[in-house]
Design goal:
The chain is mostly beta strands. It contains 1 helix and 5 strands. It has a 5-stranded antiparallel sheet. This is Spore coat protein GerQ.
């Protein structure tokens, strides 16, 4: 603090160096984050696999165990687990409400 009662402005970077953009303070609304917010809930996931002669589209149903940037892990009540690349995701449906708001907002 200086004698004038205001805080000095932070440095804007080093001259000649590219400025680093500020990082977002809150999570952004990406699909993997929505799956994470709903961990433990039952979901039905609809996928499409192009050029697959056995099955072009497939439906997965299970409880959300985890979600990463590019994948979703579901488990069936029988114990069978699926690792689904989000690349193939068309859409998902939930049995109840979808948690969408982050708890720290």
């Amino acid at each position: 603090m200086n004698p004038y009662g205001y805080m000095p402005m932070p440095a804007q970077g080093v001259p000649g160096q590219p400025a680093t953009p500020p990082r977002p303070v809150v999570e952004e609304s990406y699909i993997e984050n929505i799956f994470r917010l709903n961990r433990g809930k039952m979901v039905t996931v609809y996928t499409t696999f192009e050029n697959n002669k056995e099955w072009n589209a497939k439906v997965f149903r299970g409880r959300i165990e985890a979600a990463g940037r590019d994948h979703l892990i579901l488990s069936e009540p029988s114990g069978k687990r699926y690792l689904i690349p989000l690349l193939y995701l068309d859409y998902a449906t939930f049995d109840g409400e979808i948690a969408y708001e982050y708890p720290y907002r």
